[in-house]
Automatic annotation (TrEMBL):
Membrane-topology descriptor: Multi-pass membrane protein
Species for this entry: Marisediminicola antarctica
Statement: the UniProt record of this protein carries the keyword Metal-binding: yes
Protein name per UniProt: Cytochrome bc1 complex Rieske iron-sulfur subunit
Subcellular location, record wording: Cell membrane
Region (Disordered) location: 1-27, 36-55
UniProt cross-references to Pfam families, sorted A to Z: QcrA_N, Rieske
CDD domains (alphabetical): Rieske
Start and end residues of each Rieske domain: 248-339
């Protein structure tokens, strides 16, 4: 009997296992049909001290706008510290002081807004729990009207329109906070006027043309017909910011038959015995124009295929560049070396605001 019972139990156990096996589903596809937890509902509403005591509410309001003013002061102090402490290369003490004051000012600027906004929400904005049901993305007209109502209610409850000191100080803090970032970004550009730096290059009267990258001076007799030289100004390799200078002053030197050159009257004398020098910086977006087609006398920019005709003062014959490559007036000195007659007479490279 006992054995029989055991056999029945085992059979029941076996069939239970079978049921479990047969109802097993792939991971991630099981759906829970019943909610195992009872919704606890919202906790009872407890009014805050600022809801009950107008004096405390006034105190909280003062703290909020004080925090926003602290934010403004922090941002202004960061700019003042940046302007008042000039950085001297090699002077680490000044660098540390400037960095510390900048960090402190920016931290105050951001923390003032952040803490002020949280404190404002916690103490003065209406404390009411609400349940919002899910709904389709675009609401009905009624819903949209309700949204406007809620927005207006939010404005009324937060006191944004009514508490003018808080509102104005917050607007002031939001305006002042990005100012340190703008001032710091200015440092990414060249010292002095960026437009001025783009107007001129290293070239000057009498400066020798030298080979890139060796810096060897070039004699006119070295430049054979059809040859191309990549050129940098003499002395560039000794400059502190040689890459910046090279990015503006790089030149291509080409020798053509003098009769092939269609020289503009105002540029008479800018070339020497068929040798012409043009800026290597593309007038489209500033890539180096590095390809020369000897047969057609075309210079090609590999970036967007702008093509310049060397025989016709490097006018654009194809591609997105809108201006010819600027020409460097050249000559030879008494030793037969090629020299610049002056700097370029127009800004090199792509357009910028102040380019005439
Ligand atoms: S940079 Fe030369 S074509 Fe665009």
């Amino acid at each position: 009997m006992a054995q029989h019972d055991t056999g029945e139990k085992s059979a029941a156990a076996g069939s239970a296992v079978d049921r479990i096996e047969s109802s097993r589903v792939s991971p991630g596809t099981a759906v829970e049909l019943s909610d195992a937890f009872v919704n606890p509902g919202l906790p009872p509403h407890r009014p805050r001290v600022t809801d009950l005591n107008p004096k405390k509410a006034k105190q909280a309001e003062r703290r909020v706008y004080t925090l926003f003013y602290v934010s403004i002061i922090g941002s202004v102090a960061a700019v003042a510290a940046y302007a008042a402490i000039p950085l001297v290369p090699g002077d680490n003490a000044t660098l540390r002081l400037s960095t510390a004051l900048l960090g402190l000012g920016i931290a105050l600027g951001l923390l003032g807004i952040g803490i002020g906004a949280v404190y404002w929400a916690k103490t003065l904005m209406k404390a009411e729990e609400m349940v919002e049901m899910r709904h389709p993305t675009r609401g009905s007209d009624d819903t949209r009207e309700r949204a406007v109502e809620i927005f207006q209610l939010g404005n009324e409850e937060s006191g944004f329109g009514r508490r003018t000191l808080i509102r104005n100080s917050l607007i002031g803090a939001l305006i002042a906070t990005p100012i340190p970032a703008i001032v710091l970004f200015r440092d990414l550009g060249p010292a002095g006027s960026p437009a001025e730096a783009l107007m001129t290059t290293m070239w000057e009267t009498g400066m020798r043309l030298t080979q890139d990258p060796t810096g060897a001076a070039i004699r006119a007799s070295d430049v054979t017909l059809g040859s191309v030289f990549h050129v940098i100004p003499d002395g560039l390799l000794d400059k502190e910011h040689k890459l910046e200078e090279k990015a503006k002053a790089a030149v291509l030197l080409i020798r053509l038959k003098p009769e092939d050159i269609n020289e503009l009257p105002e540029r008479a004398g800018w070339s020497y015995d068929g040798i012409v020098a043009y800026s290597k910086i593309c007038t489209h977006v500033g890539c180096p124009v590095a390809l020369y087609e000897q047969q057609t006398h075309h210079l090609l920019c590999p970036c967007h295929q702008s093509t310049f005709d060397v025989t016709n003062h490097c006018e654009v014959i194809f591609g997105p560049a809108s201006r010819p490559l600027p020409q460097l007036p050249i000559s030879v000195d008494s030793d037969g070396y090629l020299i610049a007659q002056s700097d370029f007479l127009e800004p090199i490279g792509p357009s910028f605001w102040e380019r005439s």
